[in-house]
Amino acid sequence: MSADCVFCKIRDGQSPAMKVYEDERTLVFMDINPLNAGHCLVTIRSHAATIWDADDADLEAAITVAKQVALALREAVKPDGLNVLQANGAAAFQSVPHFHLHLIPRWNNDGKGFDWPVVPGDRARIIEIGERIREALDAAL
Length: 141
Ligand SMILES: [Zn+2]
Description:
This protein has helices at residues 6-11, 56-77, 123-140; strands spanning 18-22, 26-30, 40-44, 81-85, 100-106. It has one domain (2-140): HIT family, subunit A, CATH 3.30.428.10.
């Protein structure tokens, strides 16, 4: 199962992703495909399908890192708000069966509900935001 998991492939460097942070338990990368400015995913290095399957220490690490990512996003992107979202496996129609948290910057009156992408950006802006988040996380963690 984990051999086919795109998040495990990202962890192992076998699938491209804009990683902004890594430690022994967690991995943070930006969602570059929908070109959503600042959308970050916090995941754990161990393959666990849902929040129920995740090791307690991994879950605690993911939540701690997610807080730091939230602060870094605020510094880098200055959104009006932030959605932190965990969609639980098949029950939530997750296409990737690997526990992760979404951090999605929100702007007032973006009128998008939970639709993604929230605020599209061009590739240069995504890369610039990724650099700022990386710098803020390096300073914070
Ligand atoms: Zn996986």
